[in-house]
Amino acid sequence: GSRGALRVYTRATSEGKNNVVPHPGLFQKFGLATPPASPVGARAAPAPSALRPNRNFDALIFDLDGVLYPADNGYMAHVRENATRFISHKFSMEWRDAETARAEAFRLANQTVAGLRLMGYEVDADEFADFCREGEEQYLFPNDEVITALSALSARYGGAALANADYRNVKKEMISPSRSEGSRLAAAPPPATDPDRPSGKTAATATLGRNKAEKHTRTMVVLTNASERRARIALECLGLTRCFKHVFGAQFLRDAPKPKPEAFRATLDAVGVTDPSRAVIFEDSLKNAKAAKHLGMKVVFVTGETCDAEGAELGEIDAVADAVIASVSLPELVKAMPELWK
């Protein structure tokens, strides 16, 4: 189904989840028209005291596929076809059998390579990821609406955003490399293992953990079951590298991909958030959204191909989500979850 057809999921409630709260300065900053005031007779936006007490969040956590770009743009179909081709060639299977194995592997673990391992197949994760996900530049392109929305959020939540960023104070590692540096980005080595941390913890995780003792700051990150390296290439193609401080992917998650609770707990721990209600996750998978909600995180649900494939019902989505949007855009986010801008 198309995203347009799923806009029926957006709803107005007595809690004011989708009431428009005008932010003239914010909209003028990005050259957008200020949202119109609610019509006469419409429910007024709630007073600040009526909103959830944890409206000032510490972390925004974004899924990649289906959230930062639409899952029906052809790229995920390309990835699935490559995965079937890999399995067929690697294990000398007929195409139909390879397709069945791929689907079963994903069903088992919500991550194909992890599922294949559970099924007894030996697969190198990096080789699999590179084979399946290559070709990002053919499908993923910058989208002005998404860049505008994430730049606005990043300016508020600590990323090196395009908007309102003081580039004199922006750390070099947050600056997006130019497209000419794409090959160097793709060849970047994985984080080194920290010998002072338990097995499986990376030096990056250890550094983030040490930040807990420092002044609490807001952050905005990506959490995906894809490999970190391929996720960064995708972000570069989308023009979104500057918006995020960190990318947590398959290497970080190891044997606990989403929707396992450990995936969300590890991410919250890594960014120094001890109260899950102070973190907002942007997801297009009902399975992942349910797991995050169960931990106490706030959920912004992005409708699209993924929830269609999962057979998600309106009532199920409504029970899990704090806000529902059809796409990541500034007008939709301001309308659906004004708490983000408080």
Description:
The structure is a single chain. α2 (75-90) crosses α3 (95-109) and α2 (75-90) packs across α5 (125-133). The radius of gyration is 20 Å and the shape is globular. The longest helix has 16 residues, at 75-90. It has a six-stranded parallel beta sheet, sandwiched between helices. α10 (228-238) links the parallel β2 and β3 (246-248). The chain contains 16 helices and six strands. The chain has 342 residues and is an alpha/beta fold.
Give me a quick take on this structure.
By secondary structure, this protein is α/β, with parallel strands linked by helices.
* Radius of gyration based on Cα positions: 20 Å
Number of distinct beta strands: 6
Shape: globular
Structure annotation, total helices: 16
Mean pLDDT: 77
Describe the sheet with the most strands: 6 strands, parallel
What share of the residues does DSSP label as strand, in percent? 5-15%
Strand order of the largest sheet: 3-2-1-4-5-6
The low-pLDDT segments are 1-27, 29-55, 161-215
Order of helices and strands: HEHHHHHHHHEHEHHEHEHHEH
Distance between the termini: 34 Å
What structural class should be given to the helix and strand makeup?
Answer: alpha/beta
Residues in helices, as a percent range: 40-55%
